[in-house]
Amino acid sequence: MNLTTSEWLIEPASTDDLTDFIKIEIDAHILPWSEKMLQQSLEGEHLCWKLTLNNDLMGYMFVMRVIDQMELLNIVIAKNRQGKGYGGALLQHLDFFAKQHQLKSTFLEVRESNSNAIHLYQKYGFEQVGLRKNYYASPNGREDAILMQLTH
Q1: What is the tally of structural domains in the chain?
Q2: N or C end: fewer C-beta atoms under 10 angstroms in the chain?
């Protein structure tokens, strides 16, 4: 399914998007997914959607569906496009997809220090349901992950 407004388009991604994904990933993350991880996710069984504006890639997300639940594995908005509502558009698409397919919930982990992402997730209905100690590698050692859930 493609979700469109007069400004942007959300549609399934493919391996043709790999080069653009790599650029955004490296620019937006402290410890980005590798090219191999991105490629395997695009070629594998993960769901992946991209958001474009006038054919320019604004961001993307990877989701793993497991029976009646999903896990948001990675959501990225180009660094110079953050704060403009594109992350929220992807999250709304995710919720719409979940409801359309009668999925019960979506889980995600987020760095404890990523207050902008945490605020965004809370704005779209995610609630903290746990904490994973020392989950993420970081430049300063290890960092906790907040486990969040959205019930659909």
Answers
A1: 1
A2: N
Q: Measuring CA to CA, which residue among 66, 137, 52, 59 is closest to residue 98?
A: 66
Using DSSP, state whether 41 is helix, strand or coil. helix
Q: How many CB atoms lie within 10 A of CB 57?
A: 19
Q: Which domain holds residue 89?
A: 3-151
Per-residue confidence band for 3, with pLDDT thresholds at 50, 70 and 90:
low
* Sequence-separated (6 or more) residues with CB below 8 Å from residue 64: 45, 46, 47, 70, 71, 73
CB 124 within 8 A of CB 85: no
Write out pLDDT tens, residues 100-150: 999 999 999 999 999 999 999 999 999 999 999 999 888 788 999 999 999
Place of tokens 């896990």: 71
What CATH code is carried by the domain that includes residue 139? 3.40.630.30
Active site amino acids: 109, 121
- Residue 60's closest CA among 74, 71, 80? 74
CA distance linking residue 95 with residue 75, whole number of Å: 14
pTM given for the model: 0.91
